[in-house]
Every structure is written in structure tokens, then in C-alpha cells.
Amino acid sequence: MLPSSLTQRILQRFPGKLTYCFAYGSGVKKQTGYDDKAQKDAMIDLVLCVDDAFEWHKENLQKNPRDYSWMRFLGSKIIAEYQEYAAGVYCNTLIPIDKHVTIKYGVIRTQDLSDDLYHWPHLYVAGRLHKPVETLIEPNDELKNDLAKNFESAVHAALLQLPERFTYFELFHAIANISYNGDFRMLFGEKKDKVKNIVEPQLDAFLKLYKPYLRNMSHCVHIPDLSKVCDTRIEQTKSHDTILAHLEALPTRVQKLLNEITQVPLSELAQKPDYDTQVKTAIGVINWDNSFAQTLKNIPTAGVFKAIKYGAKKALKTFSK
């Protein structure tokens, strides 16, 4: 958890028109494989949600011009337009807060975040929000509803990919893996056991996050003890009707891809033995397309020097134990 004084210093840097802000990643949440020093030195990743990207970047360019690469010379209108490409996020990276703290922040429009949470067109920010994060500015009521839909969708997607019996760890691993399945950066830039490292030390946090949605699915998911993470087997119903209900509850982008990939309606897919593989494939397509495009898009926003430096750090993660 970030100290309140640090949180305040970070938020004070930015124009105040933020509708939601959260921090994520190894800089704020415990991950296996990081010792205390490595975690303390890790860059803090932030997502800033704004209603009007043009106005926000205009103010931020005046307040923090050095956060931006050479693209600052193009002005806030071009920056706001460039933000809309790929996953709809504009990133500034390797920003020093003081000699001990460095941040990276992505800016996304409120409407784009809402769409990603509800429909999964990109899964770029929605996927990050499948995992426990640290909220710095609370979302408005509409975004809270969209966040709830995102959590619920993650449970449906995970259950479709799990067998009849599974553990808490396997459930939360399947949820956390949604945003990494097919992600271009997993080939170069992340540790191969990234998902396991996220889930293992945060089982209680995952349970707290997903308990309401699992409770609402008690008609098809039987969990002996929802009060705490324990070494128990969870059971789910795998009838045709239940599978179809999960498929029909998936976000619209996933459903459309399933129709394109399988060329059959969801009612027929639910009867096929490989429905779980098809769901995984559809999600992988979303992640591959958007992670690759967003990674390329981030190169000019970082600038050549920062892009090389940031890429080198990611490469070290890939080849470290």
C-alpha cells in the first residue's frame, strides 16, 4: 500500500480533473519473486481516467511538460487524438517523483474505460482491473457499475475454462490469466510465471474482490467456505444450460469473436467439447491485437531513450528467475 503522503504528492502533480485513478503492479502489490528492496524500487504504474483528454493534456503539458517525449511539441490536440489509437491509452513512463520513486502513468478517457470494462474491446485496462489494485481516486457510480460488470465477466470467463472441480488458486489464476493470455508482452518483457507470482501472495485479496460475484453464482458454483481462502475443492455445474448461461454472459467482443471463430451460435457451441478452448482463443485474439498495437504506440510517447531503458528493464524481467 502506498503511503498517504506519497499518494498525495503523486496526485498533486496532475490536473485535478480525474474521474478515477488507480495504481497497480509490483510497485504497489506484493508479487512472488521480488525481495523487499526490489519491490520498493519498482516503478509505480498508474492509470488516470479523464472525461476530456484534450483539456487534460493541455493542462498537464503546462504543468508537467517534461513528462512527455518530443510529442509535446505537437500539442494537446494531436496527443489526445493519438491516445485514441489501439487501446485508447496514452502513456508517459519513467517519471521521477523523487530520487527513490519513479512512476509510469497511462491516461484514458472515462468513456473508453467504461466501454473496455463492459464490452472488452481491448482488455488493456479492464484486464488490469481483474486483479487487486490500489485505488487513489474513487470511481463515480457509473464506473462502479462497469467495474462490477468487469469482475462478473471475469468469473464467467474463468469458469468456462476450468474443470468441474478446482481450487481457489486455480480459480484466481484463471481470472488473472485472462489479460495475459495472448499478450504480446509475455513473449518478451515479462517473467514466464508472472500470473502465478501475482496470485500466490494475494489470494485473500482476490477472494475479497470476487466473493460477492461467487456468492451470486451459488446456483452453479458450490464453495464450502467463502469466508476465507482454504485448501478446499470448489465444484461447478457443467450442464449445457449452465455453460450456455456463462457464454451468454461474456462481454460482447468475446461473443462476436466466438461467432466468427466457430461459425456456430452460442447454443451450439455450449454442446461442443472444445468450448473452453474456443473461449481462450477468442480472449487471446483480443489481447494479442491490442497489446501489440499499444506496445508499438508507446514507443513515440516514451521517446527513444526512455523506450530503450524501459525495454531493457522488461527484458531483464524475462530472463531473471
Mind describing the biggest β-sheet?
5 strands, mixed
> What is the count of DSSP helices, taking H or I runs of 4+ residues?
14
**Ends apart, CA distance between termini:** 25 Å
What is the H-and-E element order?
HEHEHHEEHEHEHHHEEHHHHH
Domain tally:
1
Alpha-carbon Rg, integer:
20 Å
Name the shape in a single word: globular
Residue share in helix: 40-55%
pLDDT averaged residue by residue? 89
**Total E-strand runs:** 8
Keywords summarizing the entry:
51% helix; 5-stranded mixed beta sheet; alpha+beta; 321 residues; 14 helices
Protein architecture, described:
It is a single chain. This protein is an alpha+beta fold. It has one domain (4-319). Helices cover 51% and strands 12% of the residues. The chain contains 14 helices and eight strands. Strands 3-4-2-1-5 form a five-stranded mixed beta sheet. A three-stranded antiparallel beta sheet has the order 6-8-7. A hairpin with a 5-residue loop joins strand 3 and strand 4. The longest helix has 28 residues, at 275-302. The chain is globular.
